[in-house]
Amino acid sequence: MADRIYLFDTTLRDGAQTTGVDFSVADKIAIAEALDEIGIDYVEGGWPGANPTDDTFFTEPPKLKGAKLVAFGMTRRPGRSAENDPGLAPLVNSKANALCLVGKAWDFHVDVALEIEHDENVAMIRDSIAFGHARKGEAMYDAEHFFDGYKANPQFALKCITAAYEAGARWIVLCDTNGGTMPDEVERIVREVSKHVPGDHLGIHAHNDTEQAVANSLAAVRGGARQVQGTINGLGERCGNANMMSLIPSLMIKMGFDTGISPVNLKKLTHLSRMLDERLNRAPNRHQAYVGESAFAHKGGLHVSAVAKDPKTYEHVEPECVGNRRHIVVSDQAGRSNLLARLDDLGIEMPGEDKIRLLLDSLKQQEFKGYAYDGAEASFELLARKAMGEVPVYFRLSRFRVMDDRRWSARGELVTESEATVTVKVKEEEVMRVAMGNGPVNALDVALRQALVECYPTLQHMHLVDYKVRIMPPRADGTGTDAVTRVVIESADAEGHRWSTVGVSANIIDASYVALRDAYTYMLYREGVR
Ligand SMILES: CC(=O)SCCNC(=O)CCNC(=O)[C@H](O)C(C)(C)COP(=O)(O)OP(=O)(O)OC[C@H]1O[C@@H](n2cnc3c(N)ncnc32)[C@H](O)[C@@H]1OP(=O)(O)O
Ligand SMILES: CC(=O)C(=O)O
Question: Domain of life of the organism in this record (predicted)?
Answer without folding.
Answer: Bacteria
